[in-house]
Structure formats: C-alpha cells, structure tokens
C-alpha cells in the first residue's frame, strides 16, 4: 500500500498549524519552536458568540465521525512522527484504497506471452468483463445492527443526500473520503457557486421590486403614455403583417409596456454593472477557495498519470519510440491526426448550422402564427396574439433544444472517438469543447437573435424587398412599440426555468426507472429468488455513471452561469431562480450518486479542469453582452438622448411619439397593408417603431438625424461600459491574490518541518550507528558552519534522508 501510494503521489495527512498572527506567537523552548494558543480561550469567547454558535450549529452537520482537525499542534512529539503512517484505516481512506486497487488492476498482465496485454481497461474494452467498480459501503436506507458503527454511506445519506438537509453545510471531507478528490472538488465548487448566488439573487430581487413599486409612479412616463387613452388613443400603429393583420392602437401595447418596465428601469444599468463585478469576484474568490482546498487535500502537486487509453492502443497501427521512456508505443502521425480533426470539426460546424436553421424556423413560425391568429382567431386571440406567439415559440424552441441536445451528445462522443485522443485527459478536453460550442449555440442563439438582431433589418412598412423571398420575411419581424426586452425576458425565463425543471425531473426519475428495470431483469434470470443479493450484485443493478460522470453536471451549471450573467439585464430574477435550482440540484446530485449510481472510481485532480477557462470566457462575454443589451435592446440610451437633446421640458414626456415614425398608407402597394373589410375605413397615416423621415420630406423614409444621435450614444455607451468594467475587474483580479496569505504561511511551515524532520532522522541514524559501533550508511564528514563544503554535505544528507524516510 505504501509503495503504490508513493508511486501515485498519495501524500499522507500532515498535522497543520494555526497561522501565526497577533493572537498567536512563538517562544523558544529548548531550541524548539512551539505555538502558544491565543490569550483568550474559547470558553471566554463563547458567551459573546452564543447566538452565532447556535446558528452555526443549526447549519452544521452532526456526524458520528468528526472531521480531523488539521490545525491542531502536536510539537511535543518528535517531528518525524507527523510523517509516519500509523493507522491504515485512518490514514488511507476507502477512496484511496480503491484507487490503489484500480492502479494494480491497470498494470496487471493477463497474458504471459504478450507483454502488451495489460490492464483491466483492455479487458473491459474487449468485453471480457462487463463492469468494474468499487463497492458501496453497506446500505444507505437502514442502520446496521446494534453495536456496529454506521458506515460512511449511511452517514452521508442522513446528513448530506436528503432533501431535509438543504440548509446544512456539506461534509466535504467525508465526501472526499468516500468518493475521492474529483467528486469532492465538484461539490465544493457547486456549494461555493450556490453561496455566491445569494447576494446576486438579493440584488436582482430588489431591482425587480423597485420596478414593481415604481410601475405607476412619475418615473414611468413612457408606460403611462402608452396606457393613457388620451395620449395614445389617436396614435394608430401600422399592421405587423400584410393582408392578415389589422391596424392597432398604441394603447393595445399597454401590457407589454408594463412588463418591459419591470425589467427595463433605472436599476437595470446598476444591476448589469453589479453582475459584471459579481462574475469576476466569483472567479477570483473560487481561485482562492480552490487553493485552500488543494492545500488541505494535498492536491498542489498532483501529477496526472497520462497512460494511453486502451481504445487508442488497440486501434492505432503506427508506432514510434517514446523519447522519454525509450519504449515503443502507438502513435498517430500528424497527417492522420489532422485528417480526423478536420472531419470532426466539419460535422460540428454542420450541426451548428442546423441550430441556426432551427432558430430561423422558429422566427418564421412566429411571423406565420401572428398572421394566423389575426386572421382566424377570436377577439381574445387577436388581442393577445403577440404574447401567445412569443410563449408558444419559446416552448417550441425549448423542445428543439432538448431533442438536438440528446442527439448531439451521442454524436460528439462518436466524433471524439473518431479523433482517437491518446490520453483520457485529451479525450475529455476534446469532448468538452465540442459539447460546449454546440450547447452555446443551441441555448443562446435564439436569445442572441432577439436581443441584438430582431427588428434591426426592418426598413419601413410597404418595403418591397421584404416580399421578394421567404427568407427576407425576417425583415418584417419587428419589436413591439414597447421594445424587444419583454420578449427577451419571456424567452429567457421559459428556456432557463424549463430546462432546469426538465433536467431535475429526468435526473430524479430516469435512474430510478432504469435501476428498477435492471433489477427486474436480473431477478428474472436468478434461480433462487429468495437468496439475498450480495453487495456486488446490488451495485451492479445501479446506474453506471461512467468516466464522464461529472461532465453533465458541470455542463448544466456552466450553461446556467451563462444565463445568469450574459442576459441578466433582461431578467434580473435569473440569479434567484438559479439559486433555488442549485439548492435542490446539490442534494439531488448527492442523492443520485449515493443511492442510484454505482460508486465512481476515485480520481485525483488539482482543479476543475477546462471548465474554469470556459467560465472565464463566459464572464468576459457577459460584460460585452450586458453592455449591448442595455445599449441596443433596452430603451435606456434612446430615453437619455431624448431627455437631454430633444425633450422641451427635460423629461420623458412625448418620448413614445418621438420613438415612432410616420407612414402614409397610400404608399402601400398591391398585396400589402392591412386586410380591408366592408365597414372599416383605412386611416390616412400610421406609426411604426423607428427613427425615419416622415412622408413628404425630400428623403422620406430614410434614417433621420435622431437615429444617428442615438446610434452614436449607444456605441459610446458600449465602449465606455466595457472599458470601465474591464479596468475595474482587472484591478480587482490583481488586488485579490490567488493563494491566501495564510495558506502560503502554512506551506512554508510544512516545508520547514519536512526539512527539520529529514535532519532529525539522519542525526538519529548517525547516533544509532555510533552507539552500535557500525559505520552509518552514506556517512559524510561533520558539517562545519560557514563552509561551502558543509553546504554540499547538507544537500547530500537531505537527499539521503528522503530515501531513509521512504
């Protein structure tokens, strides 16, 4: 066990020390440093913190086996005892022992005549064995008999994996002990992300409440103008489609105007800036938290075992001599690798194009559905045609997203196997990149279109080019006079909340159904059905999580992070819904891994891998996205331009009519305009959203001067917003160190203790050899102070001491 632990770089726990601070000081005691506890003892501080302690106890976890303290000092014992393994059960966790057993099976030869036939993975690949997995420890739903301590699985279920423990802290040390470092680090990241969502959810809720409270106040002049029959009654809007839609009054957009103000109010800009800083703070604080976890779990110098995958070894027929090991190994040539990558990338690009076609199809459905509802619907359908069309289009888009996701995940796995990466790390990185590129387009393409492109191609009513082809019908896809932000909010809410609810339902129900069917099939093949199942049989009936067990969990949370940060200006309640989902997601993932899936293979990782780089990319994209949403999707900039440069009173009175342009209905050609009825009279003019010259002017229907003023202000806002946010977030990232000072101090003290232990061990060997009268191994001349030769001898003694300790 110790030999393989040394090969795999499994470090034993080292007793840590309290950080040296103003309340902790050192004294000399016989030439040995000792740490003196703070002046105030815990019993003296406890009465002042009784309320805080009671609250912490409520949030804590009551475990039979408490987490070992890494901050307890034990300097009364010799230093080398801190590095000696004394208890196999305590110092080697069950996850570490299963990891060592797996490494032994990975290196075990099963054919004496063929040296390349080595390892359990190759036997699994050629289906000699059906499965290989570490066993769960006992039952999770029953206590053991009296006199027997509860096993870790039962303890974790009672204190971590139940829904009733949603408010308690996670026992991460116990999770790591049972599942290993990789899964423990995932739950540490998920718990940290969920905690960081609390301030974002509170601020977003306050911004939404501000919109609700000020909905009918004087600050909401545009909505009041739209909803006021006196001011909006004489404004007739041009039909949204030709020959099927009717002229409408501006007051018909009252509902959309109020919904838009709930999310597009003066607090929107503040919240967008806040979320940009929140995202940067989240990444920087996670780096610090990850550094602390890496130190506590001894993950700073984890070296991945980059062995070739069995699939790579069996499929590659070209070989080379490894320049490091000097051994013959399978090797893909540059031409073969490039050919595979190009083929895989072409298919990924084709799938992205399919997603874009699906988005265009959804847009065409929205245009056609509006026309059908106006033509064949009753009064209610005609009155609510826009909102019914937006909601149905969002639901159709969600269904397309789910179906394409299921299909593409299998396709991406096939493409990654086609590329045939050499190691498992390269395999996971390639698979991650393919999935995220596709999912980014799949989930965000419709939102990007509504936020940045919808209504931008519209020229004016009666445009002949809009009727030249079906594709150019997109030019007729215009926003409501109240703006596109309400539609973006509806689309984002349905996709985000619907996706999370559907995924949670699938994660909870699907494993139960699969396990039930697998158990039913197994019992049908068993002769003695009354015989109790053994542990390996019970675990075999559970779901196989596979080597990509955490991939779906990370992907779901990263996509949610994109919803929370990229379009949060349109939906301030997104952090709140994400927080509620994550509280349930954390316990659901724990329940699934502990009760519905086979125990995953313990793996050692130093960080969350490629996902951190993806989170950084999403964060930078979110700053740009929020800047464009405020500038181009919301009416914040046009209102400011009107208020400063065009309003005669310096307020927003008259803004709605200023944001609309006039069109002469006699300019409609054959087949265009509204459907004419017998008793209905066509108005001489109608209004549409845009900044264009009125009819009769020299450049009628061309862009007006106000359009260029608004355009310049929007562009200036985007540039200023991005530079200020990126500058301040850069300063924040520089000011927050990646590794806490306390951890650096602890690492330095550990190195000092390790160095002293080596010297103490060597000195003890020399004394023992002198007392026995035998020459000590690797004996060197006595070390003299201030001597270069002495420094050389010190270096040799340290090297030899490392071997002696081993």
TrEMBL record:
Membrane topology, record value: Multi-pass membrane protein
Protein name: Anoctamin
Cellular component annotations (GO), alphabetically ordered: plasma membrane
Pfam family, one: Anoctamin
Compartment(s): Cell membrane; Membrane
Lineage: Eukaryota, Metazoa, Ecdysozoa, Arthropoda, Hexapoda
Chain intervals for the UniProt region annotation (Disordered): 763-785
Transmembrane portions of the chain: 186-211, 267-286, 347-367, 387-408, 431-452, 558-584, 605-632, 711-736
GO molecular-function terms, A-Z: chloride channel activity; protein dimerization activity
Swiss-Prot/TrEMBL keywords: Cell membrane, Glycoprotein, Membrane, Transmembrane, Transmembrane helix
The family this protein is said to belong to: Belongs to the anoctamin family.
Sequence ranges assigned to domain Anoctamin dimerisation in this UniProt record: 2-172
Domain Anoctamin transmembrane: 175-750
Species for this entry: Cloeon dipterum
């Amino acid at each position: 066990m110790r030999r393989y632990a040394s090969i795999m770089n499994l470090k034993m726990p080292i007793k840590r020390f309290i950080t040296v601070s103003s309340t902790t000081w050192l004294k000399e005691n016989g030439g040995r440093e000792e740490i003196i506890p703070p002046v105030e003892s815990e019993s003296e501080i406890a009465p002042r913190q009784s309320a805080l302690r009671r609250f912490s106890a409520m949030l804590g976890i009551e475990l039979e086996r408490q987490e070992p303290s890494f901050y307890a000092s034990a300097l009364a014992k010799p230093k080398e005892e801190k590095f000696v393994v004394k208890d196999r059960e305590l110092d080697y966790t069950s996850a570490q022992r299963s990891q060592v057993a797996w490494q032994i099976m990975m290196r075990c030869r099963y054919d004496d005549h063929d040296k390349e036939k080595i390892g359990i993975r190759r036997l699994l690949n050629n289906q000699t064995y059906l499965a290989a997995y570490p066993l769960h420890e006992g039952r999770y739903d029953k206590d053991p008999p009296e006199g027997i301590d509860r096993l870790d699985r039962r303890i974790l279920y009672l204190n971590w994996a139940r829904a009733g423990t949603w408010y308690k802290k996670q026992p991460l040390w116990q999770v790591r002990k049972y599942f290993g470092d990789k899964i423990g680090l995932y739950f540490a990241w998920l718990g940290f992300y969920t905690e960081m969502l609390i301030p974002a959810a509170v601020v977003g809720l306050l911004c939404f409440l501000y919109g609700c409270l000020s909905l009918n106040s004087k600050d909401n002049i545009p909505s009041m103008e739209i909803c006021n029959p006196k001011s909006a009654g004489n404004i007739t809007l041009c039909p949204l489609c030709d020959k099927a839609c009717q002229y409408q009054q501006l007051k018909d957009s009252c509902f959309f105007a109020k919904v838009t103000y709930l999310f597009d109010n003066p607090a929107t800009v503040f919240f967008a800036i806040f979320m940009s800083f929140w995202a940067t703070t989240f990444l920087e604080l996670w780096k610090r938290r990850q550094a602390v976890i890496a130190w506590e779990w001894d993950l700073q110098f984890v070296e991945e075992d980059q062995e070739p995958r069995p699939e790579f070894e069996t499929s590659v027929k070209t070989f080379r001599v490894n320049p490091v090991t000097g051994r013959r190994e399978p090797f893909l040539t540059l031409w073969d690798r490039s050919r595979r990558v190009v083929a895989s990338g072409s298919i990924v690009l084709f799938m992205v194009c399919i997603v874009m076609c699906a988005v265009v199809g959804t847009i065409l459905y929205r245009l056609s559905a509006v026309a059908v509802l106006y033509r064949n619907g009753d009064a209610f359908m005609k009155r609510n045609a826009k909102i019914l069309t937006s909601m149905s289009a969002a639901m159709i888009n969600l269904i397309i997203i789910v179906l394409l996701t299921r299909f593409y995940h299998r396709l991406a796995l096939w493409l990654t196997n086609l590329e045939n990466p050499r190691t498992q790390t390269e395999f996971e990185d390639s698979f991650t990149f393919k999935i995220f590129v596709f999912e980014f387009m799949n989930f965000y393409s419709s939102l990007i279109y509504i936020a940045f492109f919808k209504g931008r191609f519209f020229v004016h009513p009666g445009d002949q080019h809009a009727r030249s082809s079906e594709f150019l019908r997109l030019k007729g896809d215009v926003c409501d006079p109240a703006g596109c932000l309400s539609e973006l909010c509806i689309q984002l809410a349905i996709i985000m909340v619907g996706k999370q609810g559907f995924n949670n339902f699938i994660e909870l129900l699907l494993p139960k159904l699969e396990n039930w069917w697998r158990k039913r099939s197994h019992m049908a093949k068993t002769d003695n059905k009354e015989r109790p199942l053994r542990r390996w049989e019970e675990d075999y009936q559970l779901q196989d999580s596979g080597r990509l067990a955490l991939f779906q969990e990370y992907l779901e949370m990263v996509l949610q992070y994109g919803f929370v940060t990229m379009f949060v200006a349109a939906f301030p309640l997104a952090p709140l819904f994400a927080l509620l989902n994550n509280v349930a997601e954390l316990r659901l993932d724990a329940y699934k891994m502990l009760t519905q899936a086979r125990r995953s293979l313990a793996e050692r990782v130093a960080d969350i891998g490629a996902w951190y780089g993806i989170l950084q990319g999403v964060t930078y994209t979110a700053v740009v996205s929020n800047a464009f949403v405020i500038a181009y999707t919301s009416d914040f900039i046009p209102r400011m331009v009107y208020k400063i440069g065009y309003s005669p009173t310096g307020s927003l009175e008259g803004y709605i009519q200023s944001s609309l342009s006039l069109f002469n209905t006699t300019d409609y050609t054959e087949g265009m305009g509204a459907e004419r009825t017998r008793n209905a009279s066509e108005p001489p003019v109608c209004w549409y959203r845009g900044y264009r010259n009125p009819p009769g002017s020299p450049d009628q229907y061309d862009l007006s001067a106000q359009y260029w003023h608004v355009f310049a202000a929007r562009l200036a806002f985007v540039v200023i917003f991005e530079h200020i946010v990126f500058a301040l977030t850069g300063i924040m990232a520089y000011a927050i160190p990646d590794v806490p000072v306390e951890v650096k101090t602890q690492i330095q003290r550990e190195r000092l203790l390790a160095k002293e232990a080596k010297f103490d061990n060597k000195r003890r060997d020399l004394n023992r050899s002198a007392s026995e009268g035998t020459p000590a191994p690797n004996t060197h001349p006595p070390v003299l102070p201030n001597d270069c030769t002495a420094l050389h001898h010190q270096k040799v003694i340290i090297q030899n001491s490392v071997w002696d300790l081993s």
